[in-house]
């Protein structure tokens, strides 16, 4: 994926990054956020994982719910969906005392905790609103892992089907239109060239087609084993494990080349600690086109 292709992806405005847990999804989200910011414009990187760990990758303090400037045109926010829902209530109930009473009520608490798709709707609405208000040129969302990532994208359509009118009904309609528009929202799937992550990525491809009538815009295949270094062929132990893992990588790369519809880019496994140095190194690799991958077969 060269710089020009990355810039085209960023022009969608909203990038949703998902994938199986443990494949480097947050790292890829950080890479995309940093590279887009370096290309110019203001970029917000959002995470919703309660553990709040993206700041470690960027060498920044934790967000704590605030929008934090991490430098170079990049901002970071750990988003709490409840705060977005509370803000909707405050905007509709103009008296602060009344709004606080609504938010403290048991009915409201049960509504927030039990309404299907409401928290997912809040996350997407927050990003949509920031873009609409032109506070940021692009938003990169480090979305939940694969199954929950699909639920996140499906939520607006499901809510808009059952809630007609009112603030949440109108919000759901707007976000459903955003999710369905490939010119405004891009889906980036992160995987590894291992059997289970690759299968989950292909499942996600099918779910996007079946439930949202769209495909992912990019598949990032992370942590690829490079060829065994010269002079290690006669050693035992680690080199043998290395060969086995690379053989698995090559097998799964062929499977993904056969079955995946859309763009693909590979990133190498690097002997670098998880943090800003890793984000920078993999960002340079991404901008240079990534590592070589098997060609997709014609006629897919």
Fold and architecture overview:
- The protein is of the alpha/beta class and 300 residues long.
- It contains twelve helices and eight strands.
- Helix 11 links the parallel strand 7 and strand 8 (263-268).
- The protein starts with a helix and ends in a 13-residue tail after the last helix.
- An eight-stranded mixed β-sheet has the order 3-4-2-5-1-6-7-8, sandwiched between helices.
- The protein has helices at residues 3-10, 25-38, 54-58, 81-92, 96-104, 106-114, 118-132, 146-162, 166-180, 195-212, 238-259, 276-287, and strands at 14-19, 43-47, 67-71, 74-78, 138-142, 185-192, 218-224, 263-268.
- The chain has one domain: Rossmann fold, CATH 3.40.50.
- 39% of the residues are buried.
- The mean pLDDT is 86.
As for the number of domains, it is 1
SSE order, as H and E?
HEHEHEEHHHHEHHEHEHEH
Please identify, by name, the CATH architecture: 3-Layer(aba) Sandwich
Strand content: 15-25%
At the fourth level of CATH, the homologous superfamily is: P-loop containing nucleotide triphosphate hydrolases
Major sheet strand order? 3-4-2-5-1-6-7-8
The total beta strand count reads 8
Overall SS class? alpha/beta
Distance between the termini: 21 Å
Enter the CATH topology name. Rossmann fold
How many helices in DSSP terms? Answer: 12
Task: Characterize the main sheet.
Answer: 8 strands, mixed
Poorly predicted segments: none
Radius of gyration, rounded? 21 Å
Give the C-level CATH assignment: Alpha Beta
- State the shape: globular
